[in-house]
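Model it.
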Amino acid sequence: MKARSLALHWKIFIALLLAVPAGIFLPKEVLGIAPVAIFKFAGKLFLQALQMLVAPLIGLAVISSVAKMGEEKAFGRLGIKTILFYASTTLLAVLIGLFCTNMIAPGKVPEEVSKAMIAGAAGEGARIADAL
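Modeled.
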């Protein structure tokens, strides 16, 4: 008999519910390794793998959908229109991203705040060195 599987939205909901107690009750360190570091590493690997796959998947999807259109005459016009549309929307997205980044300046911190952060980090480093 075939086992019935849960729908994806229920699996996600259950994972979210299990993540809360896992975050609360996990020990700070297990064998000298913080579980949070393991989760961060796994999450970073997952996101980088997704980023590596997105551009080729979009390109192949556009190419295959245009190739399935049929006639060579229509294929040429549609192919050029598709490539121009894809290139122009990509250019627009890059320009919007650059504009927003330059307007918000996410890495720019006021000088007094950066000095306070550096001083705090230096004190923390000294405390850690003393503990060793």
